[in-house]
Amino acid sequence: MPDKCRTGPVDRGGAGWTLAVAVLALCAFPAVEADDCPIEIDPPAVVVKYGDPISVNCTVFTEHMGMGWVAKQNPVPNQQGVQSLLWTVENLTVWDINPQCFANFKRVPQCLKKVSVTVYKTPDSVSISSENHTSSLVERRQHRLVCEVQNVAPIQNLMVKWYKGIEVVNITLYSGESKTPVNVSSTFLITPNRTDDGTQYKCVAELHLGPEGPQPPPAVESEPFRVTVHYAPSLISSSSEVMEVRKGEKVTLNCTAQGNPPPVYSWNTSHLQKMDWNKSVFTFSFLAPGTYICTADNYLGLKRKQFTIQHKPVSQRTFWIIVIVGVIVAFVLIISYLFLRYKHGKNSII
Hints:
By secondary structure, the chain is mostly beta strands. The chain has helices at 15-28, 316-349, and strands at residues 31-32, 39-42, 45-49, 54-60, 66-70, 76-79, 84-89, 100-104, 110-114, 116-120, 125-130, 136-138, 143-152, 158-164, 167-173, 182-190, 200-207, 219-221, 225-226, 228-235, 240-245, 251-254, 257-260, 264-269, 274-275, 281-284, 290-298, 301-311. Strands 1-9-8-5-6 form a five-stranded mixed β-sheet, covered by helices on one side. A hairpin with a 5-residue loop joins strand 5 (66-70) and strand 6. It is rod-shaped, with a radius of gyration of 45 Å. The relative contact order is 0.10.
């Protein structure tokens, strides 16, 4: 005798008594499940959210001695004189409900048909974090992002999608036959570079429940996870410059570097004298010849830039221009002086 037909203590109150009667009916007439069983289930497959109502109709097309429903919630006892019987639950709270409609016939095995019921529950929460629980990631190092999905069912219908911006970059599927809610996680490995700074990742938990399920699939998504990428400084120009300037000509030293965290700047001269400069760019109206070294650094590394300042010698053409201009200026000054003396002397005689 099958286990379900063995005698034992029976709950004689409410649904327990009704279920016991239905089980005895199944034991009195050996049941068969067959495609040609004259029972129609409408709908034959149901997808229902935990706690929502469910309703399935059973119809028998031939004369019978009674029909009913066996289920772990709201079973319907054997009833005669009806051709259709509705099984309804206003608030489904059984995960493995497994309802079956049965019908009893004269001199033939009892016939029953099952209803495929998928009970689902969307996650209570979906969250994303890095393995070390910080959003600051280091360039060119591998980091693990973790998506936590809390209290979801059924696990075999779950799909976790990873998004980088609006692009799907990874999908995780789950196996198993669990019907009750579970907690699961999904991991995604990334190796960021500096162009990823400020990028937002998110993970979305979707329940793909087939054509009978809700469309589009119910989904719960995490809050965006914005990553900050740290990287060593890099100069925006060459690492050395030789600058020839004339006396009195303005000179600009530009040591700007890109880095995260922003680099700290320090300067030294060829005379081993450390200058109290903490900026990346300086403009001087006069700068003595020599070597000026700038250092830009953060905790991931440093970059140095060397400026060599040389005073440009005066060309011969420039020299003669200066001499001629000087002679003309001197001649003008002498003539002016002599004219003023002559005029002053003349006034004195008068």
